[in-house]
Amino acid sequence: MSYTDAPLVEEDVLHGAYRGEGGRLFWLALGTGMLTLLTLGIYRFWAKARIRRYLWSATAPGGNPFEYTGTGLEKFLGFLVAVVILAAYLGILNVLLLFAGFSIIIGGDPADPMVALQQILVLYINLFALIPLIYFAQYRARRYLLSRTRWRGVRFGAEKGAWGYTWRGCLLALVSAFTLGLLSPLATFQLEKYTWDRTWYGDAKFSQGGKWTSLYRAMIHVIIGVVLFIGAAVLMVMDEQLALLGFVIFFVAYIWLIIGFIYYQVHAWRILAAHKVLGDDIRFRSLPRTGTIIGTYIVGTIAVSLLTAIALIPVGFLIAGFASVLGGGANPNDLFGSPQGILFIAIIAFAYIFAIVFAGALSMVFITQPILRHYVEETAVIGATKLDAIRQRVGDDVVDAEGFADALDVGAAF
């Protein structure tokens, strides 16, 4: 029996607890979602802060809820600064490309293969140039999130290290790509160790132990999926009579690979959690289950789809009624230039927007919250009495407030 599967002795163990309510989260997500759309996206910074505040307060290990102290205003201001820096970065890059003879807009013949190749090349250079910023944004977002999180009156924190995380992330991504994913566990472990070795809770520091090779246990289903893909390709190439069997195996491999990636994420989390240490030998145990995560995604997706469809039935009848009244023999150009036609278009636009917001709120209730609850309730702190000795530390000065993460749509979730 492995360390991560050994039974816990209940003495001095603090178990995770989640007490969020689906109804409250739904109305919060729906209301903030509508405000975000009505303000053309500006309110999303305040919406994210409000939802985080609710989720943090619902997470209460040992009956002590987390507290989120971030604000929408600091996120909004950080976003504006990040957009200016990002625009300048991409602008300078394209000026350099222009001097090198490349440009997105080229005056030559679009049908010319060389012109098309240059345009594609410039596009991909711009895309790949964003990869370092994505790693930079992820670390800064996590650092901001920790600096605005408290538990039992003590704040979390992280040391500066975004540039170190950036070059490590880029290098490890290249290593994983060149080895066709065989060294993905190395990348996972090294980035996890880099971030957690710089993470604090009060005046106690986290450390990530273990070995990166232990993560290969979590890759078993990814490896099986890849082997099935190779086998399917061989069958389809070898003989036309085996092509149908190869296609079936290819489909099975595709599903297996998706499950394998989820299995890898869940079990890598379990293995890494078992080797995290806080301060004076405070340890952790987290045992989320792959089947529960996949089941939640499937059931949640079905529930969101059905409830969204049901909610749109009255709007569908209204649209059908307007269409029958307005569409009878009328010229479409005259129809959509009339007040009735404009109202008809507005109703369709409202239905589309409402469906997006409504489905997003339902996703929070049926997918996000159940998965969060599962992770929290399957996590325990071992040696919890030692938490009483931890004291507050000086707060971290995080000025961009996830600005780059919001600009690039990456970061710390929620």
Description:
The structure is a single chain. The chain has 414 residues and is of the alpha+beta class. It has a domain at 19-58 and 289-377. 63% of the residues lie in helices and 8% in strands. It contains 14 helices and 9 strands. The chain has helices spanning 22-38, 44-58, 72-99, 113-129, 131-147, 162-178, 184-196, 220-238, 243-274, 290-311, 313-326, 332-336, 339-377, 403-408; strands at 13-15, 66-68, 149-151, 154-158, 199-201, 204-208, 276-278, 282-286, 379-382. The protein has a 9-stranded antiparallel sheet. Helix 5 (131-147) crosses helix 6 (162-178), helix 8 (220-238) runs antiparallel to helix 9 and helix 11 runs antiparallel to helix 13 (339-377). The protein is globular and about 75 Å long. It starts with 12 loop residues before the first strand and ends in a 6-residue tail after the last helix. The mean pLDDT is 83.
